Amino acid sequence: MTTRLEKILACINVSTEIGLEVGALVNPIVTPDMGQVRYIDHATTDELKAKYANDPNVDVQKIVHVDYVWGQEGLPELVGEAAPFDYLVASHVVEHVPDFIGWLKEIHAVLKVGGILSLVIPDKRCCFDYHRPLTQVSEVVEAFLNHFRKPSPRQVFDYISSAVMYQDRIAWDCQTVIEPQNFKPIHSQQEAWQFAQRSLLADQYVDAHCWVFTPQSFFALLESLIHLELFDFKVEKFYETTGCEFYVSLKALDVNHTMNGGDPCGNGKADRQALQLASLPLHLSNFTPAIELAPLLVPPAETAPAPPAETTVFSQKILQLQRKKDRQAGRIQRLTLRLAETRKELEDIQNSKSWKITAPLRWIQNQTVGILSKK
After folding, report:
1. Contact indicator for 348, 313 with CB cutoff of 8 Å
2. CA distance 291 to 175
3. Are 29 and 21 within 8 A, CB to CB?
4. Which CATH superfamily is 4-279 part of?
5. Any residues with CB less than 8 A from the CB of 29 and at least 6 apart, and which?
6. Pairing mode, if any, of strands 233-242 and 183-185?
7. Across the strands, what pairs with 171?
């Protein structure tokens, strides 16, 4: 059975490569005795020790030495001539970054061509993000165009107002059967409002889960970004949800050169997109971690009788069919998008100068084929 560490480092040789790890705090994936690694966080080592001084879950003496503080300054400027690196590991980090696209681009800029970005991502179905809507491409585009360097009030409010515990846990195994009455809000709406207001202050950074994913939604987002030419990696390795998280290794592509030897007349961009799209997982298992009998949070009812067994089974069947319908609708939408793009590319080719110049040659070829077919 593949261990968690093996999944994270599946495409990395830490003993011979030089890399970065973001947000290690007291539990680094790569330790100095394993290989050359430098640590990145949102604050200095001393600031982190002060922040967690009264947190019983954090041994401040075990906080790693932070080499780079990544905040307002871009990562390429931060690491300077130390780049490029062979890899970057980020466990439960990507969901916190305010600008998803910009974050990936900054990492790509400090990796070697072929370098690996290894991500460990929480599955919303197995943690306190359970009731939040999945991240849409429009949201990450907005954050990128606005150059978010800290979570927006919307991101903060949605995160805090929607967070829930299930049976007093903030995360649970993906095979857990969920009973809605066992959910409890972590924060009040008023608290969410206060944190959202605080996030507007210039000197305040309010941490939040800015993005919410399942494996299916994550790769659907990457597919959209590939078509928008906003994604500079391809998927190298993927492990489905185990516990409450899934694992994705991305390989940095050379975006400065075409993929056909530098031929200016070639279609390197299309080749790169084809490579990226082909790397996306086609078949993802759709485990059903929940039997949802109600769409909203339901307070525990001590005297309420349990629903009949046949009602539970029927509700589960409805939920499974709805999810199947949603998946099919998503596939149809993506195929429709691809068809429209293919038609547009064909139209561009037919309207191009080279297509018009070679029109007589195609006419001669068609006439020749017609004559030969009559013989």
Report:
1. no
2. 11
3. yes
4. Vaccinia Virus protein VP39 (3.40.50.150)
5. 5, 8, 9, 21, 89, 91
6. unpaired
7. 127
Q: Are 83 and 212 in contact (CB under 8 A)?
A: no
Q: Where are the domains of the chain?
A: 4-279, 311-360
Please report, as a single letter, which amino acid is at residue 196: A
The two tokens of residue 181 are 């009455």
Residue 295 tokens read as: 């769409």
Q: Tell me if 251 sits within 8 A of 234, measured CB to CB.
A: yes
Task: Give the CA diameter of the chain.
Answer: 91
How is residue 139 written in tokens? 């949201």
Tokens of 231: 């994604």
Q: Cα torsion for 282, 285, 286, 287, to the nearest 10°? A: -160
CA-nearest of 140, 159, 128, 75 to 101 is 140
Distances, alpha carbon 138 to alpha carbons 211, 225, 235, 276, in Å = 12, 10, 22, 21
Helix (H) or strand (E) holding 224: helix 215-227
Rounded distance between C-alpha atoms, residue 268 and residue 286, angstroms? 35
DSSP assignment of 237-295: EEEEEETTEEEEEEEE--TTS-SSTT-TTS-HHHHHHHHHHHHS-S-------B--S-S
Distance CA 102, CA 96 (A): 13
What does the pLDDT read at residue 1? 87
- Written as one letter, the residue type at 349 is I
pTM of the model as a whole: 0.75
315-372 tens-digit pLDDT: 556 555 655 665 565 566 556 555 655 666 666 666 666 656 666 666 556 655 555 5
Assigned token pair, 362: 């195609």
Residue in 310, 176, 146 with CA at minimum distance from that of residue 242: 176
The pLDDT tens digits for 198-218 are 999 988 889 999 999 999 999
- Token readout for 197 is 């207001």
Position of tokens 């987002």?
221
Could you count the other beta carbons within 10 Å of the beta carbon of residue 364? 10
Please give the C-alpha separations between residue 186 and each of 5, 97, 115, 167, 168, in angstroms, as whole numbers. Answer: 31, 22, 39, 12, 10
Q: Give the residue carrying structure tokens 């993927």.
A: 238
- CB 100 within 8 Å of CB 141: no
Residue with the two structure tokens 């018009």: 356
